[in-house]
Amino acid sequence: MAITAADVNKLRQETGAGMMDCKKALVEADGNFEEAKAILRKQGQKIADKRADNATAEGVVLAHVSADGKSGKVVAVACETEPVSKVPDFQNLAMSILSNAVADHVTTKEALLAEVQADGRSLQDHITDLMGKIGEKIDVVSFETVSADKVVSYIHSNGKLGVLVGLSNTNGTDIAEVGKDVAMQIAAMKPLALDKDGIDASVVEREIEIGKDQARQEGKPEAMLEKIALGKLNKFYKDNTLLNQEFVKDNSLTIAQLLDKTSKGLTVSSFKRVSIG
After folding, report:
1. How far is Cα 107 from Cα 75, in angstroms, rounded to an integer?
2. Contact 175, 263 (CB under 8 A)
3. Rounded distance, CA 122 to CA 106, Å?
4. Cross-strand bridge partners of residue 76
5. Are 261 and 173 in contact (CB under 8 A)?
6. Phi, psi torsion values for 198, nearest 5 degrees
7. Which pLDDT tens digit goes with each residue over 122-169?
8. Which value, in Å, is the radius of gyration of the alpha carbons in the chain?
9. What is the Cα–Cα distance from 187 to 155, expressed in whole angstroms?
10. Predicted confidence (pLDDT) per residue in 217-238, tens digit
11. CA distance 230 to 236
12. pTM above 0.90, yes or no
């Protein structure tokens, strides 16, 4: 069967695949459009399988906060190279992924990728299709949600880092400015947890052993090692837990003190930090 330019263009319009890929698929399918589409999808899966282990150090992070300000979602969609992260098809896919999460109140990455689209296929199928079109690995590397009295989002200027912070006990106070300050603190200082209760016991044990070993190498008496290590652990908490960190804009205040100064009892209930690269 003769394949016309009009046939190729029609398939291209329906799939978004390149002209040559569409022509090859139509030739292989003997002009059958549905079979040609299936061939293009298989091509995407082949590329996905081939590039499964490739690093994805570029991409975009997007966030959304509900109209009532009580819930937020942040998604990181990654690819292999910066030029691909800038193309409209990739940007539109990332926005579609976030839109799906918001519209259907999705709370897990697995549920998000399984979202059924208008054509009856999953969101993951559409991601695979775009991989076939552009020839790069595309991956939803992070998807997080936060619910609180007030949720604030922050996207860093490079578009590859995002934060959601949930605040509680807002007491009707306008916390937009302090919320942004705390979100930027999280972006810059990378806290491991909200407070010391959020640090895994294995991490605490490791830090104590490191503290003891350092003190031992400094020649401190064995009887003092535990006390010295606990002192170092407190420093670890101060550096790595959000509420105990010094505020980067005013190191005379911890984040907990900054929040309480803004409004008595105001605190952070949870936060999420996602990044690409």
Report:
1. 11
2. yes
3. 14
4. 61, 142
5. no
6. -90, -5
7. 999 999 988 888 889 999 999 999 999 999 999 999 999 999 999 999
8. 25
9. 9
10. 999 999 999 999 999 999 999 9
11. 10
12. no
